[in-house]
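[Solved] Which block belongs to which protein?

Original post:
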Amino acid sequence: MAAPDRYAVFGHPVGHSRSPRIHARFAELTGQLIAYEAIDVPPGDFEAALEGFLATGGKGLNITVPHKLAAFDAADVLTPRAQHAGAVNTLALQAQGLLGDNTDGAGLLRDLQHNLGIELAGQRILLVGAGGAARGVLGPLLDAGPASVLIANRSPGRAAELAARFASDGPVSGVALEGARDAFDLVVNATSASLSGEVPALNTRIIGAHTFCYDLAYGAGPTAFLRWADAHGAKGVADGLGMLVEQAAESFELWRGMRPPTAQVLGELRDAMMRP
């Protein structure tokens, strides 16, 4: 019997990752023979860990915090979306070398548009944060044809810098957190604040009766940001679990040449997380 092809997620910390469970179910549902594990790689150890993984037969990797920039540098070839984002969350060993891709934005759009039924074209979007997560999703958000995207960040200089990087993609600008004062159609929290139970210092006027709020973070219950949004009258809220599953499906399709069913896996994962 053939040995399974080997895949993994690199991160630090990574013990909480749902990726091994997600990809195991993808493999079961598509009849693919793979082995997938979570590997904790401390900062500074990425290159050595990558070399070791490939030397032992590794075929592909998902990359999470804090290694997306290191993965970008390690790739031999970059997809246009990875090149534009300046960050890589998926590596695939191919004939031309190590291919770097960024599936975050595609995963977000798939969750928003397909799973949640949210219209993006012509909408006013607020993107909170200007770090790696925001960089990964900004290009695809602009490609969806919104009326505007405003980036709000604790450091307004970083928001302006990110906006300038994507200025050719569509109407985008950057301000300080307190500079966002009007109601938006969609607010996307791309900061890591929810991971520590905090909420970015946003003006409550960004939420109107029609505003939908989305947090890239996820948990067994609503994140701190989503609780804040709900308390201030948001029309609807959602966490990033759907994005996690959808971006994983993008990676799986890159590796295996087929797209796995995501709705079933997302439902199973949500049910498992809700159990005591």
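(Second protein starts here: sequence line, then its structure tokens.)
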Amino acid sequence: MAQANLTCWKGFVFLGFSGFGELQLLLFALFLSLYLVTITSNVFIIVVIRLDSHLHTPMYLFLSFLSFSETCYTLGIIPRMLFGLVMGGQAISYVGCAAQMFFSASWACTNCFLLSVMGFDRYVAICAPLHYASRMNPLLCAQLVGASFVSGYLFGLGMTAVIFRLPFCGSCEIQHFFCDTPPALSLACGDTRLSELGILILSLLVLLVSFFFIAVSYVYIVLAILRMPSAAGRRRAFSTCASHLTVVTIHYGCASFMYLRPKASYSLERDQLIAVTYTVATPLLNPIVYSLRNRAVQTALRNAFRGNLLGKG
């Protein structure tokens, strides 16, 4: 460990919700409720897709992995945040902060890549429906999912390495509720311009490259939909993309605001609001959007509630 890091070698202190006083218990109740719903919904989506043979298609395979990735992302952040709200323990070790940053960044990047894969799946389904089964074969699906997870971990490792190679020779108080890259970067002393550039480049590679593939996919999708002769066919084709587009818009909107900005524009109150949306609300959005807008998922959920699927298991 670098000599300059000695003032923070024992750890950091979160100040994110320390100014809320008695409202911290109210926030704890609110966030705990949302977290339990998030975990339950995502796990239920995974189980239903696994048990219902009608959902054993590439589209729902990718959805189940997205739910798994979102669940892992929240596990690395929210339980520690809830503990701090109710127990007042806002300290985290130096190694614990690095680990939390690594896993949260890895799963966040994985989510971006999985959303890009889901966009490619919709492109093949709508633009080449006769070749969908042969092109989106099990081997390719496994390779796409595996590449998403491996790439996510590599980018997460890169972001964590860029931050924790810096000297932390001043305050060890993080103006946030978890070890995210922007607030941790603001604690570093010395010349941080190269590290800021490194984080920006890595964020651009993850967000803009994956979003570029999604955008290209949807350009071809829209062109294919416009060429369809019947209005009913166009509505049906677009409805298969609406859920994915909704999740993409909110996910990339929040992530871009958080990570594609210069250090000088950081704001504690504003950034925490966006971070809460990204870490608490967005993971809940995935199962809600797909269950509300997708008839196949709705049918599978109804069957599960009636005990048909679970009874067969």
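Accepted answer:
You had them paired correctly. Confirming on the second one: The chain has twelve helices and three strands.
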